[in-house]
TrEMBL record:
Residues 1-294 form the Reverse transcriptase domain. This is Reverse transcriptase domain-containing protein. PROSITE patterns: RT_POL (PS50878).
Amino acid sequence: MKSASSSLHGFMLNDGTVIKDGPKMCEEACKHYEEFFSESEIFRPYPYTDSPDLQWENFDEEIPLCTTEEIYEHREQKRSSSRYTKWLSSKIQTTNKSIVVFEHISSLMANSSPVGTIFVDFRSAFDQLWFLGCIGKLKRMGIPRKYLIWIENWLMNRRAFIEIKGERSKWFRIRKGGPQGSIFTPLLFITYHSDLTETLNCCLSHHFADDLAAIMAGGIGLKYSLQCLELEKKLSSFFEDLEYYCTLTAQPINYNKTQALFSARAIGYPDIALKCGNNKIEWVKEIKYLGYVFTPKLGFSAMIQKTMLKVRQRVAMVNSFRLKGFTSTALRKALFNSYVLP
């Protein structure tokens, strides 16, 4: 549990009512999160939970024992690796993913094809993990039974409460979503959605953690108008497949943050209406994906301008400490290396 925030003074409800009383604030927050973490509504029978079990050769494989000395040794190895090395490795992974997306879009544009890229945002991705569906899916993937029991015990029987201004709410159960702060939660989420790219077979899909980018293009060698019509059909088919998959896995989509980017060498852009179910998807002229800014012409001017603005703001913050006399040269250098240089 995180400590109570000292800056939280009140809640505004949907009807405009403002609540500032501590117990009432706890009660309203408890109602919200109890509903948020309630079990997903699933109609049974379901393919993940009610289909016949598959017997794998490693079904009864035991979990290897680990001694205390091995745990200490593993912890010391983790400590020995510097924070900068960890940041650099994660930065390289996101950079490589962004470069692959950039190359796929640019290669399709080089063939004079109109390209539509959909950037999908999953709503509270790690907090919407469906327990029974995840365990059932892992079972069908061939995960040994002892590991499944451990994962199920790790997910199930969790409770929480809300504390505001020294007041505590009642305990409520968490019936979906993985524990926060654990590296195993994103790993379990990625494993649960490992077949997402196979379902979306009408596009070039790039799935990185809870970020999804899907690239589609019109046919090569056709007129531009016919290419746009073909692209519109592919986009419609993509959203049908995406909605089916998200319904199957009980993973909701954040439609407000799911956006589309149109890229083409031609000047005129078609007016393609995008819908996922009954929700309208917006076309944008600029979008940020894995730390990089994508534009219709795949230029870097927008990203350079945003980076320069961020650098100027952070340099000004570091210099403000020097002007107030609260810092030294060594500390300013450390602040620069930590906040400006990355």
